[in-house]
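Co-fold these.
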Amino acid sequence: MDFFEVATSTPTMRRFLDWPIPEADLIKILETANMAPSGSNAQPWEFVVVRAANARREIQKLYESVWGPYKDSAIIRGRTLLSPRAVKALKTGDEFAAQLAMADLFNFGATYGSIFPAIELMMLAARALGVGTAMTTMLTSKESETKALLGVPAEYQLIALVPMGYPADGFKRPMRKPVFARIHDERWDRAWPHSASLPRSSGEG
Ligand SMILES: Cc1cc2nc3c(=O)[nH]c(=O)nc-3n(C[C@H](O)[C@H](O)[C@H](O)COP(=O)(O)O)c2cc1C
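Predicted complex below.
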């Protein structure tokens, strides 16, 4: 797949089919993630691939225990009142939490800035192979429980849980604010001059 097609069709996937990812593809995805840059080339990531159904169910329970209160928090309820899109997102979030036991789960341990490039590369590589992903950090508030479940040593930090699987829905272009509204020409107070003459990308929202 063309890089730009991959990069512009990698939305967060929250509904998965219960199909296993071939081992060769998993390795290809992780080999790609492993190419990521990191501060001082420390390469501080570790990947815990969780495929066993019982472990995934335990992770699902932990995730749901965070998702429930998050969903009911004042800030989220406020948003729900304001936006129909948020109502839909919450419903998708419920389904996602309920679906976690169906996705392969990847946990990362180490420091943020040097981990996120690896996560992004992992998600793009997965997308190129037809595999959907969701970057999630909600489980970090259950870090000790998650680490105990997966036998992760104390000195490692849990950064993200990336459920991964074949998507129940297709790969769509993510909705984003128009990029030209946020490009500045030399100085903050100068809008990019050519924005009016360039086409708006589809899917911008
Ligand atoms: C640092 C970070 C943490 C995130 N944590 C979660 C999470 O815990 N649960 C979740 O469902 N999505 C999570 N997301 C996904 C975002 O909700 C998603 O990237 C954003 O809504 C855009 O979605 P889209 O790419 O499908 O348009 C996270 C994304 C990032 C970058």
